[in-house]
Design brief:
single chain; alpha+beta; Jelly Rolls; Arc Repressor Mutant, subunit A; 4-stranded antiparallel sheet; about 40% helix
Length: about 250
């Protein structure tokens, strides 16, 4: 009897779905990537996955939930640096160091799939095309971080919030068959304020003003993007997530 070959969608994995957005995944690719989700660990909202300064031996795939990287400033204030969403590869920046450079905390109840750093090294030997994709994703996030730095340094609170909402929407769309004009943000306004470098009061006011202006609609913790182009124009949003240049990737082994 001939064994039916598995396709990316057969794995029911948002990780494979996101990677498959950028490149066509072979059966061998899928089997290789499935190993990254072999082990699972559950975390409750508020649990720490890593603490700055501690030895870090793993990188993670986010299977469910939202996770945040953050630093603590000298005066004790918290600075949220990067959110990770379901299907994201989390912690590539930690490859360069033995110790964690940030704190990692579950924003919601989350399921993460840890894997040793050495698995990335194995990719360079056994699956260079996938290694190139992982590298490109890390560089994509670096460019997105530059956008965030520019946003934090040059924009008013409403524009910062608009940028955050559009970026979150763009990231949730990757690997999804649903056109997410409406999506849930499982974060408090205080945490959102930390992400965009603003106060709780100014974020609350900005959400209200964007809604009253007709740019967004609020449905509890869900946000609906009503006027995408108007929001993108006001905050100069560039979608860094829709496409990657894969033309330089090596052929599959």
């Amino acid at each position: 009897m001939t064994t039916q070959k598995k396709r990316p969608q057969d794995y029911n994995s948002c990780f494979l779905a996101k990677l498959g957005h950028y490149v066509s995944l072979s059966e061998d690719d899928c089997e290789t990537l499935a190993k990254f989700e072999k082990d699972e660990r559950d975390y409750a909202s508020g649990d720490h996955i890593a603490v700055e300064g501690e030895t870090i031996e793993h990188i993670y795939v986010v299977k469910h939930g939202w996770v945040v990287f953050y630093n603590v400033l000298p005066d004790g204030r918290r600075q949220n640096l990067r959110l990770y969403l379901p299907g994201d590869l989390m912690g590539m920046t930690e490859l360069a160091y033995l110790d964690a450079t940030t704190n990692i905390e579950a924003v919601t109840d989350a399921t993460l799939c840890p894997f040793p750093k050495s698995h990335i090294g194995d990719l360079f030997e056994d699956a260079p095309r996938l290694a190139a994709l992982f590298l490109s994703l890390a560089m994509r996030d670096e460019v997105a971080l530059r956008d965030t730095i520019r946003m934090l340094g040059r924009m008013q609170t409403e524009d910062r919030l608009a940028h955050f909402l559009l970026e979150t929407q763009a990231r949730l769309r990757i690997g999804s068959s649903v056109d997410k004009t409406r999506f849930r943000i499982p974060m408090s306004q205080t945490m959102m304020a930390d992400v965009i470098g603003a106060s709780f009061v100014s974020v609350n006011r900005a959400l209200r003003d964007l809604a009253e202006n007709g740019d967004i609609a609020r449905h509890g913790k869900e946000i609906e993007i009503v006027r995408w182009q108007a929001l993108a124009d006001r905050c100069d949003f560039q979608n860094r997530y829709e496409q990657l240049d894969t033309g330089w990737f090596p052929e599959s082994a």
